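Whether sequence alone determines local backbone shape is best considered at the level of individual chains. When preparing material for the folding task, we compiled for one chain both its residues and its backbone structure tokens. The sequence in question and its structure tokens are set out directly beneath this paragraph.
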Amino acid sequence: MDQPRDRLIDAARTLFAQKGFHSSPMSELASVARVSVGQIYRLFDDKNAIIRAIVEKDVLAQYRLLESLGEQVEAGSMSPQQGLEEFAMISLSHPNQGLIYEFVAEGYRNPAVAEIIREVTHEFRRHLRRLVRAAQPGISEGALDAAEDMLLSLNIGTGNRELTGSRLAVPEAVQCYSKMLLGAFAALDRTKGQ
């Protein structure tokens, strides 16, 4: 169903990715979403609320995928490497990767956006921990913390591949990332006492 709120979120996602958060006036957002500026403010208090809606919608889909991966690796219906390959594919195939950087940059300037990022990554981190535990059973808490940070950085940072001209095709990158992650988890766990 073509609801004004959904049109606004989709239009904002597109505009913010193309022009940036601050260079996307509400009047242009209203025009692209086919609503009035007044309707924007009836649905959202401000641009921060629009950011929250975009992030929650996008991240919720990733939560579901990560939860499924953790369950499948735990159940043995997917190998740890396959689970990490799927995670890498999620990270590499985000359609609006540039938008993530726009939000992260805004988070450094805007405490309200920083709080939105912290809130959504808290749950994201929980799912990452589950995937790591399934891939490296018995991993120590310290190594698990490091692995969680590494996966979150990978998820956020892979958008740079296109911008920086990566020579690896996505399938090759996915295989390399998953093997490197498995090796890193094992290495982290071996150094826990050092």
Remarks:
- The first helix runs from residue 4 to 19.
